[in-house]
């Protein structure tokens, strides 16, 4: 278990990833190559709704510096530069985008054995500001985040959360959407490798009195094959089958059904990621 409480974005992340990650609705193919100089080059193609798009991404890692550049088929360019320990126990991240250069931002993260802090500012004339703070330990943490819009002088968001983490389980409560939504999640691992797990999540939106209850889990059929399933009270059933063809190279197939309207066409997604 890592030192410190982690970032606020980590609250509820384990349950959230199990219920959302790898559930695809499109077709994706990617190939990654590595060089001895530390450069990773990834080419991806995505087909969704009869429309195909692609991108080329390069990553360079040297000591405490990580640089990422991505270019897509519409000539959008995004670049991220992350520098660790400019200040001890910190990470500085700069993100730039072109032609939408006003969406760039500069973020600073600071880690302490009993606290973490993030501050981000947009790189434009009237930049938005985002802050988060987390207090606690690796086993118990509470925190909050807020967004401030300098143009209107108003808070655009504020969220609070609490999490309890044990070696084989994690429970979280998040109050978000400016206090309009509460989300409670729990994940329990059945093995040390954390491939077999059960998860449950309850979400309530106070303004509409809408409740959503989702259960799911993952099961390792063998060391190379993983199945994930989720179902909510609205009848949405999702299934993922993931198989490791060779080391780090994965084929992922996903499908989602509406069990209350079986006449609707189910959604299917496929992803093939090849890495040397």
UniProtKB/TrEMBL annotation:
Keywords: Ion transport, Membrane, Porin, Transmembrane, Transmembrane beta strand, Transport. GO terms for cellular component: mitochondrion; pore complex. It is found in: Membrane. The keyword Membrane applies. GO terms for molecular function: porin activity. One of its GO terms (biological process) is monoatomic ion transport. InterPro entries: Porin_dom_sf (IPR023614), Porin_Euk (IPR001925), Porin_Euk/Tom40 (IPR027246). The keyword Transmembrane applies. Belongs to the eukaryotic mitochondrial porin (TC 1.B.8.1) family. Forms a channel through the cell membrane that allows diffusion of small hydrophilic molecules. The channel adopts an open conformation at low or zero membrane potential and a closed conformation at potentials above 30-40 mV. The open state has a weak anion selectivity whereas the closed state is cation-selective. This is Voltage-dependent anion-selective channel protein. It comes from Penstemon smallii.
